[in-house]
Structures are given as structure tokens and as C-alpha cells.
Amino acid sequence: MQYISTRGNYKAVRFAESLTLGMVPRGGLFVPEKIPQVDIRDYSALSYQELSARIMLLYTGVDFNAETVRKYTEQAYSAHRFETVDTAPVKSLPQGPLVLELWHGPTAAFKDMALQLMPSFLSGSKTLLGNKKRTLILVATSGDTGKAALEGYRDIPGIDILVFYPKGGVSRVQEMQMLTTAGKNTRVVAVKGNFDDCQNLVKALFADEAFNKKLSDAGVELSSANSINWGRLSPQIVYYFRAYYAAVQERRILMGDPLNFVVPTGNFGNILAGFYAREMGLPIKTLVCASNRNNVLTDFIRTGTYNRKRPFHKTSSPSMDILISSNLERFLFEMSRHGAGKVARWYQELGDKGQFKVDDTTRQRMNSVLWGGFTTEEETAAAVKNTWEKWKYLIDTHTAVGFDVYAKYQAETSDKTPAVIVSTASPFKFNQAVYQALGGHAEEDEFTVLSALSDMTGVPVHRSLAGLDSLPRMDEIVIGLSDGPKAVLAAAGVKGS
Ligand SMILES: *Cc1c(COP(=O)(O)O)cnc(C)c1O
To answer: Which of 66, 227, 255, 431 lies 20 to 30 angstroms, CA to CA, from 305?
Structure first.
């Protein structure tokens, strides 16, 4: 299996190299040259670990053998890392959708699904390539990737990790989760800016040849744990298969029937994994792209124009407060039938003018797969409340965006195809907003709210969040955007700047 650049500006690389490089050094993202095809009946009876091993093996090519991959997936999705026997359980709401719960891992959000597995592959890739450099993983986070990456990579030999998060742009629980990370190789820095600023900072450092030369001379290379890295994206394909088989088991569909998925979306990584599952042969009809008030994707899907020049809103679903959805680039590469020239031009325009417009053919192809909608803050809160009142089922604010947009999708299209709503975080991770949506008081401390929400609903607090406020924590470091490179050099142990 070879990986090529979405912008046609780099040689084809193997799986291991796509992981160690993180993204294409001259800008662009690695994508599989050919998407593997499967017969869905072959995988229907497998455990999550086995299913993950079988699917990952299709993407690793010859770089990893079946035995190694199986060892990795067994460790990643073991009972002591995920709180349920079923790694990604599917809830069936009577006369309602199915819900795929992706938050039973160690940090209570779906990022664990990939980041518990990815470090093994990165270490393995370095060994395979004879790479003796120290790897510094740079992470830009809107809240959840940071902690999941810190947990995944802490104390992995030969690897350090540095996380940038927007100061004031993450929830108190998210910030505390990051600052209480143990491990000798972990660093966390707050940046005066928003998530897009953090992501641009990281992307610019990857693309800066002189900067990377300096690191390289000191025996350090950069890599990424964001979904721009194929090693982060590929493990996410697995749970779409898992949910499909659950829908068959629940008798919502027969094997081979179409199924819709509704995905709360920010950086377009999760939903893109669903798209790859579809391309592999999983009968997904429509992928519903659910956004909050930062509805740049809704507009894009409807008009074909991507315009990031718009106000940035801080919402109750902060992990989706994003205006530049990186993985859309991979999707457009597929929609334009590997039109690397077009993709390169569109992203050049996005950088220069803040917007681009795709051609009609690309837009029509896109509309045959994707449907986009968005949710206001009031509607998000109402969705939390309604879902609780109707089913006694507690959801977080991101998942609530999915529920609300799904209702809009049904109303606008009358599509009766059964659907799975992808639930991306534990309700306790965004407890303040969830508690208020259910009528609780606003002013209490987030950690008091944890138990108040549990008392109110009878739902136990996620095990990774209980006791968080009494753990030892690192000092908080806040920097301006222009100090990003300096922070990286310091983390890499390189003197001067
Ligand atoms: C990261 C995240 C999202 C957005 O996922 P993308 O892959 O960036 O589209 C949605 N919800 C939660 C809770 C998240 O942590």
C-alpha cells in the first residue's frame, strides 16, 4: 500500500513513512493510492480488536504483519483501557436512532479510539525504518485530542509530545485533564488564540524547511497526532463497520441494506473515516455532517464555496469550534477523482484569499454522499433535554448537535433509512452545559457539577473524570502565537531560537 499527496507534490511513501512524517512536508496530506475493497460479510462476527486488526492490516501493506497488528489492537482496546467489554457499544433508542458510543476510553472522548492504537504503530514504524531520531509530536487541540494524545504517547520511548491549546477555548475539565497528565515526555502550552491559530501554527512549523533542518541537526524530527496523520485517521474507519453490524444485529437493517450516519464534525476527521468505510464497500447511504454555529461546512456542502472569513463563535461544543477543517482536503481529493492539481489550487486560494469554490461536478459528487446542517446554542441545549426526557438517555453537547441536525435532515429529506448517530464524548466531559440544559444552575464549579449531574440523572460519572481535581498538576504555561517556534525548540531541547 502506497500513500500519495493530495497536492501531487511529493513521492509515494509507505504506511510507516506516512506516520513518521505526519503530513506531506511541502503541504498536503497523505492518502492511500487505492482504497482497499472488502466483502462486508467476512467481518461481521469479529470482536472489536479483531475487526480493527483486519482493517488496519489492509492499510499497513507489508509494513506490519498480522501477528504484530493483532498484538497492537489487543493492547489498545483491552478491558483496562476501555471501561466496557464492548469497546464501542451501540445503544438502540426505541423508535429513534442507534447511537454509537465512542467515549468509553481513558479520556472520555472519541479521540481515544485512534490514539490508544496509534503510538504502537508510530514506534513500530520508526523501528522498521531504522529511524533513531527522537520524535517530537506536535498537537493542536480544541480540547479532546490533546488529552487523548498525551495519554496515548506518555512514556513511549524515543517520543516526546507537545500540545498547544487555545487559552480560554477549552472547558475547565478538558484543561484539567491535560494539566494532570503524568509522564516524563509530556508538555502542554496554552496559546493566546483560537484552535485555528494553534492548528496553523503547527502546520506552518511542519512546512518550514529551515526550522526542521535545525531540529534534524539536533537529532529531532516532528510528527503529528492530529487527524492530518493517516495513522490517526485509519483506526477510526473500524467503528463504522462495528456500528453497521450492530444495526444488523438489532434488526434495524438486513446485511447489505443502506444505513445513514450522523457525525458531529469539526476537523472532518471522524466523518472522513466514515467516507473511507463507504468507499471500502460498507453500505452507507448518506453521511450527515453536523456542525455547530461555526457552520462553514454546512455552507460549503450547500454552495460549493468554502469561506473561512467569518466570525468565530465559542460554543458549548468547543471541540467543533473550527473554521478550517483539515481533512476536507482528503475528501476533495477523492471527489475530484484524484485531482491533485485542483486541490493544490483550492488550498492555495484558501491560504491567499480565505476562500475557494469547487467545480460543479465535484460539488454534485459531494452532494451524493454528504448532507450538511448546523445547530444553534439553544437547539443544542434543547436536544440534550429532549433526548433525556424522551429516552432517559444522557448525551453531551457535541452528540446533541448530531441529534438536532439529524431531526433537520429527516424533516428536509423525508429519508426513512435507519441512522446511527455518532456520539463523540461522555456527557460528563461537558457537564456544565449538559447540566444547565437539564435545568441545573449555571454558576457552580465544573467539578461540583460532575456529581450534581450524576445525582440528578442517576448516571455514574465517567471513571476518568472522577477525582480529576485532586490530582497533581503541571504549571500552566501561556504563550503568544509568535512564541510557538520557541516553545517547540525548548521542548526539543534545542538551544537558541
Ligand atoms: C474532536 C471532536 C469532534 C470533531 O471531530 P473531527 O474529527 O475533528 O471532525 C466532535 N466531538 C468531540 C467530542 C470531539 O472531541
So the answer is: 227
pLDDT at position 443 is 64
Round to whole Å and give the CA distance between 484 and 201: 7
Could you list the beta-strand ranges (E) of 406-456: 419-423
Cβ neighbours of residue 88 closer than 8 Å, sequence gap 6 or more: 48, 100, 101, 102, 104, 113, 239, 242, 243
Strand pairing partners for 420? 98, 261
CA–centroid distance, residue 143 to ligand 1 (Å)? 9
Residue 110 alpha carbon, nearest atom of ligand 1: 15
Q: Where are the alpha helices (DSSP H) in 137-233?
A: 144-153, 172-179, 195-207, 209-217, 230-233
Q: Whose CA is nearest to atom 15 of ligand 1?
A: 144
Q: Is 192 a catalytic residue?
A: no
| pLDDT on residue 232 | 95
Query: Nearest to residue 291, comparing CAs of 390, 193, 381, 375?
Result: 375
Question: What residues flank ligand 1, with Cβ below 6 Å?
Answer: 109, 111, 144, 227, 264-270, 319-320, 398, 424-425
Check 111, 147, 342, 429 and give the catalytic one: 111
C-alpha cell at 207: 512546512
Centroid of ligand 1 to alpha carbon of 11 (angstroms): 30
Return the SS3 of 423.
strand
C-alpha cell at 460: 455514574
CA of 399 to the centre of ligand 1 (A): 10
Intervals of the chain under pLDDT 50 = none
C-alpha cell of residue 18: 506516512
Q: How far is CA 437 from the centre of its chain?
A: 25
Closest C-alpha to ligand 1, atom 8? 267
**pLDDT for residue 32:** 98
The answer to whether 300 and 306 are in contact (CB under 8 A) is yes
Q: Which of 363, 291, 376 is nearest to 325 (CA)?
A: 291
| pLDDT score of 198 | 94
The answer, as to whether pTM is greater than 0.90, is: yes
Compute the CA torsion angle 268, 327, 371, 344 (nearest 10 deg).
Answer: 160
Q: What's the distance, Cα to Cα, between the start and end of the chain in Å?
A: 39
174, 447, 312, 204: CA torsion to nearest 10? -20
Q: Whose CA is nearest to atom 2 of ligand 1?
A: 319
The distance of Cα 458 from the centroid of its chain, to the nearest Å, equals 29
CB 187 within 8 A of CB 163: yes
What pLDDT score was predicted for residue 441? 86
Q: What is the spatial distance between Cα 282 and Cα 206, in angstroms, rounded to a whole number? A: 34
Decide: 154 and 182 in contact? Cβ < 8 Å: yes
| Ligand 1 center–CA 250 separation, angstroms | 26
Q: In the numeric block, which cell numbers belong to residue 160?
A: 516526546
